[in-house]
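Re: How this chain folds, sequence and tokenised backbone to follow
How to read it: Take the token row as a discrete description of the fold.
Start of record: The labelled sequence and token lines come straight after this line.
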Amino acid sequence: MGDPLASTDVRPLDPLREPQYRRFWLAAFVSNTGGWMQNATIPYVVYQITGRAGDVGIAGFFHYVPFVLVGLLGGSLADRFARRRLLVVFQLAQAVVAVGLWAVVASGSATTANLSALGFVSGLLGGLNTPIWQSFVSELVPRRLLLGAVTLNSAQFNASRALGPFLAGVTIVVWGAAASFLLNAVSFVVVVVVVATIRVGSDVRRHERPDSTGIGEAFRYVRRTPAIATCCAAVGLIAGLGSSLFNFLPVYGESEFSVTGAQLGLLLGASGIGAVIVTPVLLGFQHRVEGARRLAAAMTAYGASVVVVGAVPTYGAAVAALLVFGASYLVIAATMNTTIQIVVREDLRGKVIAIYLMCLTGGLPLGLLAWGQVADVVGLRVTTVAAGVTLVVVTVVFALTGRFRAMAVDARSTGARPDPGSRPGAVTPTQPGRGSR
């Protein structure tokens, strides 16, 4: 059985026919490209300064751990206030931090400490911004297009994950590492301009002050909903065991393969290229293959690709494995994001997305810290292989304990509910701004 929102009259690219979604999608691609340039450059600079994988892990820890601290606050803001206006504020604030990173690197005063501190501030702002961003996507298309919209959103994110690190590698050679941060700051301006001109339902919605049980209710709802609970558990393990690899790719490039410039950029961007390659395939078959089956297969491939990166001796083989790494992650991200967007109650959407992102961003900093410390003791390759094997074992355990089956049943039962054709809070054709440029 396919996913519950599948419709025979919906084509994969139909969400891009919605003018506001299309503009947002293009702006997000530009901004995320700048963000991935920054994400690739920070560990590169840290490793150039210290030469220790442990310090790369520490800087990554301080960059991502704030998401756990403020993610729920971001979700609450998304449920209370106009999401568009909040996005403008947080995009501008993140641009200021990017300028700060440019200043310390360009002046030659960069240290692990000040890069970690600026990364921490960037993480705080990103933690507030991300649940609002994810919730905002659901306002830009009617319900019947939500599956395609979420997948296309994941596709542009991963396309930027291909282009951003590649451009970072080239930029570092041509203009120096500081330029990556400056270009990221400029990229935020594109999103601000576009978002400021979009009109959506939450612009006029005002929620009463939430009671103290709102967040507790969201946690209980997640625990009682197998599809969402499975996604939350899976994403935390995937982040800690697999996704941490990205931050250590500059270490692989420097110490294992001795590459710089475009070759380093290709190593950093290979996972994103893999995601881009698989996007047309995913758009074509996602309506026909049950999400739980996609997730199980993709998690297995993801863990296996991590093992291969750690085991192969050559640069070319590592790049090939990273293509699979990125392709399988796109399937994972699109499947879990879509499942949550379909199943979640509208009044808890922002908080539940924040809880899901807390699991992601909680697993990632802990994984980075563990990867770095273990790699300093036993070596980066052994650490990589062990993490990948563990993720494959976890996937098998999920399958044997019925987590994937429970996810499928819950998604089907939710999809069977009567659907009036649009979501609460979605922009309908009669609302101002619909279809305008």
